[in-house]
Amino acid sequence: MQNLRKLRLASTITQLVPCGILLLPLAFPFLSHIPHVNFFRGLNISLAFASALFQVMECFCFNSQKTQDQVWKAQLLCLLFAFTLILSCLGITYIAQSNPKNTLTMYLLGLVTVAFLWDFEYYESLALVVLSTLAFSGVLGLTSLPMDQVVLNHCMSFVIMTCFFVLSRVMYSHRATYFLQLKEIEEKNLEIEKVSRAKSEILGVVAHDLRSPFNNIEMLTSLLQKQTNSPEQQQQYLNLILTSCQSSRHIIKELLYLSKEEQQDSIPLEKTNLCTLLQEVQQEWETQLQGSRLLKLTYSDTPLYANLNKERFQRIMNNLLSNAVKFTPHQGEITIGLQRADKKLLLTVADNGIGIPDKFKAQLFDRFSKARRRGLKGEKSTGLGLSICRQLVEKHGGSIDVESQERKGTTFQIILPAVN
Question: How far apart are CA 279 and CA 298, in angstroms?
Answer without folding.
Answer: 10
